[in-house]
Amino acid sequence: MQQFLDLTLSGLSQGAIYAAFALALVLIWRSTRVVNFAQGAMGMFTTYLALLAVDAGWSYWAALLLALGSGLLLGAFIERVVIRPVENGPELNPVIVTLGVFIALQALASLLFGAQYRSFPAPFGLTGLQAGSVNLAITPYGLFTIGAVLVTMIALVALFRFTDLGLRLRASAFNGEVSRLLGVPVGRMLTLGWALAAVVGSLSGLLIAGGELVWPAYMDPLIVYGFVAAVLGGLDSPAGAVIGGVAIGLALSYVSGYAGSEFAGLAALLILVAVLLVRPAGLFGRATVRKV
Amino acid sequence: MTAPERRSERPAPRSTAPPALVVEGLTATYGPVTALREVSIPTEPGRVTAVLGANGAGKTTLLRTISGLVRPQAGQVRLGERDLTGAAPETVAGAGVAHVPEGRGVITELTVEENLRLGSLLGRRRASGRGGPARGWSLDDVLELFPAIAERRRRPADTLSGGERQMLVIGRALLTEPDVLLLDEPSLGLAPRVVTQIFAVLRDLTEQHALTVVLVEQNARSALEVADTGVVLALGRVVAVSEAAELAADQALRHAYLGF
Ligand SMILES: Nc1ncnc2c1ncn2[C@@H]1O[C@H](COP(=O)(O)OP(=O)(O)OP(=O)(O)O)[C@@H](O)[C@H]1O
Ligand SMILES: [Mg+2]
Q1: Is ligand 1 within 6 A of the CB of residue B53?
Q2: Ligand 1 mutation pick, B26, B29, B30, max ligand atoms within 8 A of CB
Q3: Is there an atom of ligand 1 within 6 Å of B59 CB?
Q4: What is the pLDDT of residues B197-244, one digit of tens each?
Q5: Where exactly are the structural domains of chain A?
Q6: What's the gap in Å between the CA of A165 and the closest CA on chain B?
Q7: For B19-93+220-260, which CATH superfamily applies?
Q8: From B209's CA, which of A221, A242, A272, B190 has a CA 20 to 30 Å away?
Q9: How far is A160 from chain B (nearest CA, A)?
Q10: pTM of the full predicted structure?
Q11: How far is CA A57 from CA A112, A113, A163, A202, A215, in A?
Q12: What counts of helices (H) and strands (E) characterise chain A?
């Protein structure tokens, strides 16, 4: 029972990070029909920027803001400069371009920051909390992770649901042509969509790095699990991405805890295949063809 | 659609003279296909111009060229003082041209009210840009004009029937405070009674708000009943222009191009 509780708690904090990463993928997929394979590398790059800032004596919080801000700019830049020119060609082109960005950013990071392991700071303790005399598997940093992702989700939901800008963003994602006929500057909305997604992606990179080692490829496992979470949720559904992320986090935690961590990757693959067999559009995806 | 005594509550007609739409000599191509050849159409505020013709005549292309979705090879589109030739669709919309596209253009993933709010957002921007109050279409005015959609305002727009969708997109277009309304086959797939209703509303709106309306229709008979002027397109060329009543009376032309 104690073990189950511990695995649940650590699964939740990992799941929150997968959820954030999956959400970043979904935001981009939904608006531009591009699977952004560069998302992990983008988050890695901005995390390195935060590390540079910490090296230079900045506080963790200032470095965090720097990472998120540079994520915003990086997302906008990549959409404008790299994706936009190939957008109207064959559908596969932007996806291949994101793979190119992925490789380029990893290479650039090795050049600029070095390929060796570096340890990344955490703003809160990494030892388990205690409830009375019982040791819990949740750390203060784990709680911070869950909280940061929750706050981000709530802010995004508020933006999309309750603001005029959010309405324009959603309309542009769903139907660009009609949106333009209603005066919405769809091009700018797509850039903003990429920028917001990249912020969320940067957050996931930062959170997974906290108290751990970083190196240019440290995001690779997160890319896999985040991608599985996004597909699980249906790729089209932000809520699905979050639920998918948490589900993957929990599932991997149980598998690692009860069966051994070497089975985690296999379990992710099995879950993915099982879901796609039963529901090809994902748990929350729309299977219907879009009517305009 | 609405009880007559409610009419007075609708926004007052504008006081300043509306800008005139000029569509002259438009030529447009899709690769090797020339869809429009030097097409000019007469338009006037407060009047409906019907654009008729067979499938593939170029009617949709004409509207798409006016609203900026297609760039013309030659010719011009102006609204008042502004040259809109080749301008981006969002610019043309901002200038006061509301295009209700073929197949209606409901954003089905949004709710009915969200669709309407998109129209209001542009309407508000246009009103503040002009420095004065808008003619003042509010969401409530539109819901009052089309009670059928008022009941469904919080539902996803893809739950609406064809007629309701048409009301939604016309209402959404009105909320943008347009000077020009471009409608692409609004009668498509609607029961004759609904078509009559919608055309009656359209007629009222055109006169009361001095809208310049370009109405593309396959349904030539109904369109000529509501229109002031008729234009017939065939293979991308204008083959006839005249008063709607004259077109409707021209038996040879009707048989050759309009099929009634
Ligand atoms: N996107 C496109 N690419 C290539 N050719 C096109 C395209 N859209 C239209 N065309 C061609 O241009 C011509 C005019 O088409 P358009 O859609 O304007 O006709 P229409 O009068 O609206 O017809 P309908 O009554 O069937 O809607 C047709 O020959 C059509 O095949
Ligand atoms: Mg057409």
Answers
A1: yes
A2: B30
A3: yes
A4: 889 989 998 998 899 999 999 888 889 999 999 999 999 999 999 998
A5: 2-218
A6: 10
A7: P-loop containing nucleotide triphosphate hydrolases (3.40.50.300)
A8: B190
A9: 12
A10: 0.89
A11: 19, 17, 38, 21, 20
A12: 11, 4
